[in-house]
Model the fold of this input.
Amino acid sequence: MHINASGTPTRDTMPHQPQRPTRLHSQVVISGATALMFKANPSATMLSALLLALNAGALAQPAEIPRTPDGKPNFQGVWTNETQTPLERPEALGDKRAYTPEEAAQQVVNTAARIEREAAPIDPDRAPPEKGAPIGLEADWKFPDTSVVTVNGEARTSLIIDPPNGRLPPPPEGGPRDWRSQMLARPGVAEFDGPELRTVGERCLLSVLSPAGPPMVPMSYNSNYRIVQTPDYLMIMTEMVNDARIIRIDDEPLLQGMFRWMGDSVGHWEGDTLVVTTDKIHPQQSFRGSTGALTTTEWFSLESPQQINYRVTVNDPEGFSQPWTAEVPLRALPAGTQLYEYACHEGNYSIIGALAGARRQEQDAREAPQPVGAYP
Done:
């Protein structure tokens, strides 16, 4: 649901089921301008409108969903799952699963204020970074969202709903086992020894982090999707790196050992919910410590023409000490929205520069004067 520029709340809905999404989700989307207006003038009228928007989802009636010619829910269109709600709950919140409506409204205000601060012009006369310091991305690199994910009337404090603390389970005993961690644990191997030891996102082989999935988890920008659907396939193209994930419907899984980026995804319909199972993830694809042993079950449920409910359960005994589950809705973008080419490697010399810098550091170390009596 939205509060428009005049402060008038409008509603849309988002569902969910105990085992798969049905009719519990609703997304609170409040524009940064409205939130800043509320901060500057927190009148009783504005507060009432903000809280009304936060509570309206639980009262909204189910909408008629669009369907394909064969009667299945029609997921086709352009969508986004960007939100300010983090994947993991802040530790200070403990087992607090949801904000009160007042707390959720304040979260929107705080986020809008932070966006305003980060959008301020960068001082052209600022001092250069210290020698050897990493150069970070500046203020124009992300397009944050003020929306708060609300499920079954709960303004969620995290996308993760299980474990109950809303945080990723720790790795199994013995530490991380993902491909990159295993390579870096070998004697004499350093992270800048070659391109293979950089992350797949840095190498532009896949999306940064995991918007393409599985799991499909938003990041701070480019978490937008185009979905194309036929009776036999569902294709989800992510704006980030233009990853195209193809889900086969009612098909047999690939043979064991046939690993692929984004895994082998096979879906089937349970009523109006598309259930997708994925395994055979490429071993070098990792999200927060996941490994090639990762398997996921995803549920896609269309609540209305404006909302897809998405739930995912991740099981990876090599990466996490227990399975975990997250929920995040996808919102329809305005009609006519286009996803443009994300030319990740066009003019991208980051890896060349990083590896060349490491080689220069090694050369400098070799050429540095040796202490008297020392041997190179």
